[in-house]
From TrEMBL:
Pfam families the UniProt entry points to: CutC
SUPFAM superfamilies reported for this sequence: CutC-like (SSF110395)
Listed name of the protein: PF03932 family protein CutC
First and last residue of the signal peptide: none
GO CC annotations, alphabetized: cytoplasm
Record-level Gene Ontology MF annotations: copper ion binding
Native source organism of the sequence: Microbacterium azadirachtae
Record Gene3D superfamilies: Copper homeostasis (CutC) domain
Family: Belongs to the CutC family.
Gene: cutC_2
Amino acid sequence: MTAAALEIAVDGPAGARTAFAAGADRVELCQALAATGGLTPSAATVDAVLAAAGAPERVAVLVRPRGGGFVYTPEEVALVAEDIAEVVRRGAGGVVVGALTSDGAVDLRALDRWRQAAGDAELVFHRAIDAIAEPASIVEDLVVCGVRRVLSSGRAARSIDGRAALRALVAEAGGRLQIMAGGGVRVEDIEALLACGVDAIHLSARQPSGDDAPSGPGGGVPGFDVTDADIVRRAAAAVHARS
């Protein structure tokens, strides 16, 4: 049996260093995680996190052009393709994407274009799958499009409450792609999530930084989150105990 992996969502090199030092196997890099659920990070941020990782397969970069839903215009699809190509050119081992049609199916044209842009990098389908009524119903499409890993909460706000849907995804995938549980994951949930047969656990492991310097009228809310080493350490122990 392949060992389960721990992936930590980070927004920069400091978070990546903390995650790796505390036992994470991989990071997903994004920006504006708290405000939007994550957007494409800057090129400089990608470079710095890759340097911290030491190996391309330890970094998957979210490529998402805006917040909101996952139905994209042709212009947005083209922009994502360009961003994917740039991220991969800089050395990322994986890219994280997701696109749906207005009737709730996978946008196969977008995904095929993004697969081509990604080249040999891993293509990961994110929680856009949780906006679909029956997530397991799109597994075949994802396999055909070359997706290697899927992030899902099982359509629940917290993955622990989506275990039935996660089990269905694992069964439908049949080892053809990895299923990663993520969304509201707490350390105490990990054992039960791994029992569903998932291949990896994803969480943000974030805590307030304690920096509450005023941001002024144009800087958003004061304060920001940082990756918490203790949460990552406990999560790593829970994941790797099952390996």
